[in-house]
Amino acid sequence: MTDETFYEGRSALGQASALPASPEEARLDPVPNPHPDTLYLARFVAPEFTSLCPVTGQPDFAHLVIDYAPGEHLVESKSLKLLLGSYRNHGAFHEHCTIDVGKRIVSAVKPRWLRICGYWYPRGGIPIDVFWQTGPVPDGLYVPDPGVAPYRGRG
């Protein structure tokens, strides 16, 4: 299968794309991994992720770090950007948003391994950090620290 055939009718890549109205409407596009025989880590960082509090309707903000070891497919970054943006008007708790993003990626590309770290800014004075991974880190996979300092407030 050529890349052109793979993308035909499936991807927002190279096209003007509206932000999906909800995560349910968003679609992650897998693309062929040029090195499926190599164990390596790819990282996405979304320092301005937003969603809505399901109770108050007020905005919530997070810094997401997504690490994954690709298998046969990669996550196409524009489709990931659109998925993440679709949460802006979505009311859900921090735990749901973080884990839902991770599970959506796993469902779309079936990576060898994935970890998502959600560092949420304080709501009601309490920061909530959410971490999820698909299992143990594969032997030989280099996984750097997420690089996000714990919340320290003004102190």
What distinguishing features does this structure have?
155 residues; alpha+beta; GTP Cyclohydrolase I, domain 2; two-stranded antiparallel sheet; 26% strand
What would your notes on this structure say?
With 155 residues, the chain is an alpha+beta fold. It has a domain at 33-133: GTP Cyclohydrolase I, domain 2 (2-Layer Sandwich). It is built from three helices and six strands. It has helices spanning 3-7, 77-85, 94-109, and strands at residues 30-32, 42-52, 59-69, 73-75, 113-120, 129-133. The longest helix is centred in the middle third of the chain and has 16 residues, at 94-109.
> What's the end-to-end separation, in Å?
56 Å
Shape: globular
Main sheet properties: 4 strands, antiparallel
Helix content: 10-25%
Strand elements, count: 6
* Strand content range: 25-35%
Which strand order do you get reading across the main beta sheet?
A: 2-3-5-6
What's the total helix number?
A: 3
Question: Uncertain runs with pLDDT below 50, 5 residues or more?
Answer: 1-9
Structural class: alpha+beta
- Based on the coordinates given, report the CATH architecture of the domain at 33-133: 2-Layer Sandwich
Mean pLDDT: 91
Q: List the secondary-structure elements in sequence, H or E.
A: HEEEEHHEE
CATH class annotation of the domain at 33-133:
Alpha Beta
Taking all Cα atoms into account, the compactness measure Rg is: 16 Å
